[in-house]
Amino acid sequence: NREITTRLAEENTEKAKFWWDCYRRLIQMYSEVVLGVSASAFDQILTNWKARDGVKNDSELSVKTLQSIVHDFEASVQAHGKTFPQDPWAQLTAAIEAVFRSWNTDRAIHYRKLNNIPEDWGTAVTVQSMVFGNLNENSATGVVFTRNPSTGENKIYGEYLLNAQGEDVVAGIRTPKDIQNLKKDLAKSCKQLVLVLEKLEKHFGEVQDVEFTIEDGRLFILQTRTAKRTAAATIEHFLQFVKEKKLKPERALQKIEYEQVKQLLHPTLKVTEQKPMARGLPASPGAVAGKAVFDPESAVIISRSGQKVILVRRDTSPEDIMGMAVSEGILTSTGGMTSHAAVVGRGMGKSCVVGCTEISVNETLKRASANGQSFSEGDWITLNGSTGEVYLGELPTAPVTWGKTAQMVFSWADKIAKIPVYANADTPEQARLAIELGAKGIGLCRTEHMFFDKERIKKFRLMILSENEVDRKKAAESLRTFQREDFVGIFKAMKNLSVCVRLLDPPLHEFLPKSENKEEIQILTGELKISESKLLLRIQQLHETNPMLGHRGSRLGITFPEIYEMQVRALAESLYRSIADKNPVVLKIMLPVIFSELELKVLLLNLKKAFYEQLNELTKDRPNLLKACEKAVKWGTMIELPRACIVSKKIAPLVDFFSFGTNDLTQTTLGISRDDASKFIPDYREQGILSVDPFETLDQDGVGKLIELSVTEGRKANPNLDIGICGEHGGDPESVQFFRKLGFDSVSCSPFRVPMARLAVARAELDGLKF
Length: 771
Ligand code: PEP
Ligand code: MG
Known about the structure:
By secondary structure, the chain is an alpha/beta fold.
């Protein structure tokens, strides 16, 4: 307080300047933090006095000027209707209360939400005695990391200021010096600091972020904590620690955060002050910026001119695929974590924000708005697919890193894991990416995704719109070459690994042209050689009220057998070609949306007949090849309906494997449409009814119980039954641990989530163990 400052300054005139500087700092910081007086009031006073005295730094101010500044500071606090208390105890208690109050600021609440910090933890207050980096030129203060938090380099990294307090470093009033210069300025303290840093890092087994002060040549450590680093730096540091024998690989694997694994693969946003315009579901990670476009055609045209675009839609369908493929990212105002946009976006590795209900999208006017802000076609927007945030403008991003270090660290995980991680991949490119990211096979190849291409979708529509068997067979056959080429490409990429191909599962509505799209209707009438009215009638006939529960999955195989037959014939041809080329792939053929053993029996009977007929014909004079092909094929079913779980003991003896389709199983067990979930799940989470989105993390109490029943009954009826999962939960760490506990033989997820799943399957083995 003023009295103590005056006395101390009088007793030791040499230090008078120092004591007055301390007092003005106390008034300034206390008034800002405790009394809520804005910082700018004090900054202005300080700047004015420095200008009047013609000095650059605070440390050059005279005692007299500092006394005047204190006077002006006190007056300024008064002018704000506040009082700076002179009783030190009153100061202390109010300061403690201010720290407790800070727990409930908007910023703190938001931070807790982002980092999953429970509301009821509360904060603690530490009261420390003060040391003074602003005592003289033999004093300093700074922040130092034991290793580089940005690049990962094993070299101390930080900044300091001579004759200053910590606030000066943060406030940026003076430019701090690189820590490498400390040796020249304060050699003895620097040597000591380096020793302490080594000790702290060893003690905590983590790279540390340390605040220090040197008071008249004596070093004090104010605070140390685990350093916040880029994902790349963190991984690099784990590798260094393991090499230095400071950490066991098992412990390193336990320490890696899943969030950081996500960041390793995608560009991230540089730290920004800008507030997001809206927030949706973080469907596919990565930070991207581009010009907003509102339809796939514009996306293609604009991107062709070399410009980056972000496709903004209410929702997406296969018609949008070309637009999605050329976009940097995808933003939809509806849909959940397993909606078309989310699944396809993730598969393509596109940054994707879905279910952003705050934004209203007007596709006709090519304009979107939310929270009083808006953008139109051509305006720059930035998506952060890792957080679901949408920003106006082009925000700077940090580049992607998935190099040798990550490969090394993840190879430790593979050694510990007991089950392989497969990838959901539909094209040879995705298959290659999956391998690069460590997948040991393909757990789900969604064949309907192979028809998104403009030429193919036309033929595909011909097939589903055909009115009779002959036309349908002809249309299906025209797709066989494409199918064969794709399969061969995928098998080649996967070499001797296994590939699970799922026969068509298109909710038909996703593939039908919209009757109002006149241009497409016209093209189709030409191709189908029928009148427009007849075509519109056919579209109307195929229209379904509830397509997700409609004519999809194996039901298509029952009513239109020629479609599945074409697919298995193409598979037989591809397998034959692959094995003949000494590419010993393992082929798994899988049926979707099965609910009964009879349904499965009928299908398997027809399909096996067609498959082996084709194979026999191809290997007529090569019995060894036939044998090798027969050995390389397995037949299985997806389990994605509650009834399929319940009758598993009847289904299991008919197949070699089960693969749980937890997207549909969640949809049908909870009775929540996966495409509409985002409209109300956030409210359920807000009100604490659901702690997580069940389409993201498996509902173990409900869906999990059905899976458990299915596994137990299925294995009892068929002890050789191979069990896997290919729903999106296959990439969710918590769900993966659950599947492993149930004795699954593999998990499968989108390529970009493979590293995370690799870590999760390894962690499942390390669960509860100390290293
Ligand atoms: C599933 O339902 O979990 C699944 C993998 O199939 P899809 O997402 O293609 O319906
Ligand atoms: Mg499904």
